[in-house]
Amino acid sequence: MSLKREITWRVGLIYAFFFLMALVILGKILILQFVEGEKWSKKQQVLALKHFEIEPNRGNIYDVKNRLLATSLPYYDIRMDLKSSALTPQVFANGINGLSKGLAKIFGDKLASRYKAELIAARKRGERYYLIKRKVSYTQLKELKKLPVFRLGKYKGGFIYIQDNRRKLTHNKLAARTIGYAPKTESSPSVGIEGAYDNNLKGIKGLRMKQRLSGNVWMPLNDKNEIDPHDGEDIITTLNINLQDVAHQALLRQLSKHNAHHGTVVLMEVETGEIRAIVNLERGANGEYSERYNYAIGESSEPGSTFKLPVIMSLLEDGYVTLRDSVDTDGGKVRFYNKTIKDSHEGGYGVISVEEVLELSSNVGVSKLVDQYYHGKEKEFINRLYSMNLNRKLGLELTGEGSPEIKYPGDPLWSGISLPMMSHGYEVRMTPLQILTFYNAVANDGKMVKPKFVREIRYNGKLLKRFPVVVINPSIASSSTIKDAKKMLEGVVENGTAKNLQNDLYKIAGKTGTAQIAQSNKGYGGYGRVQYQASFVGYFPADQPKYSCIVVVNAPSNSVYYGNLVAGPVFKEISDKVYATTLEIQNTKVYAENIKHPAPYTKNGEKKDLEFLLKDLNIDLVETEGVTKWVRTTSHDSIVKIDKLTIKQQLVPNVVHMGLKDAVYLLENAGLKVTVRGYGSIKSQSIPPGSRIKRGDRIVLQMSFV
After folding, report:
1. Contact, 254 vs 536, CB < 8 A?
2. CA 317 to chain centre
3. Using the 8-state DSSP alphabet, how is residue 514 labeled?
4. What is the rounded CA–CA span in Å between residue 184 and residue 570?
5. For the segment 227-250, what is each residue's pLDDT rounded down to a tens digit?
6. H-state helical runs in 261-353
7. Would strands 532-540 and 509-516 be described as parallel, antiparallel, or unpaired?
8. Would you call 643 exposed, middle or buried from its count of C-beta atoms within 10 A (0-12, 13-18, 19+)?
9. Which of 78, 113, 149, 550 could tie 436 with a disulfide, CB 3.0–4.6 Å?
């Protein structure tokens, strides 16, 4: 075969190969276009279009007076469709300078020239979803909508904004742990009211179709949703933010004063169990206190002497003692097996009544009584405590409630000293809220009600659900035992360990508690020193209980750790302010009889005006002889004394310490022109008193405040 023929054959073979390949490709194109076209078109649409969920607005949380506690604030991502067919080159060119200047002014993060350069570059690249700024506030969004180009809207101006809601506590950190936060995922822990009522608050998600652009960016196809979201419901809590603030500040001051590790306060309405305030503060590494954990609900610890009340109530209910029965405190010490129990009072209290055992908080007295009557009948004692619901959780809607622990005879940890130790609050564990619920039941004539954090659920103002009062136990003890318990608790404040809480306006009933803190497996002093927990729990006004309250301060470290001195002042500050601001619980008769009004500061002036004012204030007025129209005043305790103030014709009067209205009246009637400098009371006058008046002269009155 000649060389020419061989070359021709090989070229032809190559041409034939490529021709066949072209036929195959053409055939495949025809098949894709006409046979499988519909199939691949649908698949492409699925890959390019996708449904996205639209988060609804989360419901708000309010206090009992409908004041906002937690809400969702909108933030926005600002983007721009720079390839929109409606955004013409002329519109872009005419508006780019104004738009760039506006962005620089609103955000203040870049120069206008840089914004302009970036937007021009993005338009050249054909960006359909160009990010301008994240986390833009609603106020900023309103300003952006007014800018050149953007004010033309989504299509003509390419303006795109995507809303994202963020949760905000409106009162900073008040009740932060109780309000809580929404779980981020289904497996996340549920915290506070946000977590407990997440299903109500979160609403129902909507759907919107979006199209995928280059760079895996998804853009909404239009402004309408396929399914609109259903916003969340609103929660009306039982909290009162004013009382919450009072309790927060009172506890914070005491924790700081005693350098304590943490503390908690709960204020509850007696009849309903509604929680009006709940504070949990813990000292951080920087020494500042904040809400990190809900100790009121979650911390189950040995309560100490506050547990003596149910113990003595058991003795009363089982008929073993009366309040008048006596017990010998044995010099303040008693030994059970290898354990010596002591009273805080050196030398003991001698022979005291059962009532005084609680009033004086005698560890020796209560342990001897329990050992005397329940030794060999331990199950009877524990069953009596169980009958008062002290061994069961409260069943709160908020998660994290600590378990009460009152062991039963036969328990592996039961020993010969269990009875006397339990009698004064050791070898048992309860949370502060569980203790408070028991004392609240005493205040409520024996009816134990479940603590309540939420009163109502609403949607757009419409009531959906109201939560009723839940009775845990209609009667924790007989009426006679409840009556005796109330008497003892009043005696604690009137005659016992909490006498520092007395006042003349209303009665407080309650019990102090001071307990050593067990430090894991090191015992009560395993780390070199004993740590204490100070508490006070009670209710007020004692004769007609309206509120119950517990204060617990853990590990005060400034050498003062007794309940009456550490926790008691917090209770009293809260109860005083609640009483002062709650008219329906005030005893106006007692108030009038016990409050002596100090005489107010009064200014010199016209007698008849002063008489009218003091009469209205029910303040005694004493006048000396010769008093006429104008008087000079002095205050003495609860009375005001008035003397004659001489005003002579043609002489400048003494207007120092006089009311400005009266002073101007006197001076201008005398023919003087008055200039006043400052405010308050008159401190001095430029023309001395007694000077002869020259009509038309100017007198300057210098007031006490400039």
Report:
1. no
2. 39
3. E
4. 36
5. 778 889 999 999 999 999 999 999
6. 295-298, 308-317
7. antiparallel
8. middle
9. 550
User: Got the DSSP string for 129-167?
Assistant: SEEEEEEEEHHHHHHHTTSTTGGGHHHHH-EEEEEEEEE
Contact (CB, 8 A) for 699 and 687:
yes
CB 62 within 8 A of CB 454: no
User: What's the rounded Cα separation, in Å, for the pair 279 and 117?
Assistant: 54
Structure letter (DSSP) for residue 185: S
Q: Is the pLDDT of residue 44 over 60?
A: no
Instruction: Based on DSSP, count helices (H) and strands (E) in the chain, helices before strands.
Output: 23, 31
- pLDDT for the residue numbered 348: 86
Strand order in the sheet with 673-677: 673-677, 698-705, 679-685
Can you tell me the distance from the alpha carbon of 497 to that of 344, in angstroms, rounded to the nearest whole number?
Answer: 11
First to last CA, the chain: 124
Paired tokens of 287 = 């020494």
pLDDT (0 to 100) of residue 588: 52
Cβ atoms within 10 Å, residue 463: 10
Mean pLDDT calculated for residue range 136-149: 91
**Cα–Cα distance between 454 and 459 in angstroms, integer?**
15
Note every long-range contact of 486-491, with CB atoms under 8 Å and residues 24 or more positions apart, other chains counting: 486/442, 486/443, 486/542, 487/323, 487/355, 488/309, 488/312, 488/323, 488/355, 488/358, 488/359, 489/309, 489/358, 489/439, 489/442, 489/538, 489/539, 489/542, 490/542, 491/355, 491/356, 491/358, 491/359
Mean pLDDT of 306-320: 97
Tabulate helix, strand, coil % of the chain (nearest 5).
35, 25, 35
Binned at pLDDT 50, 70 and 90, residue 591 comes out as: very low
Q: pTM (2 decimals)?
A: 0.72
Q: Tell me the pLDDT band of 1, cut-offs 50, 70 and 90.
A: low
Rounded to an integer, what distance in angstroms lies between the CA atom of residue 57 and that of residue 140? 20
Per-residue model confidence as pLDDT tens digits over 355-404? 999 999 999 999 999 999 999 999 999 999 999 999 999 999 999 999 99
The per-residue DSSP string of 191-250 comes to BHHHHHTHHHHH-B-EEEEEEEETTTEEEESSSS-SB--BPPPEEEES--HHHHHHHHHH
d(CA 420, CA 424): 7
Percent of the chain topping pLDDT 70? 86
Query: What was the pLDDT predicted at 52?
Result: 65
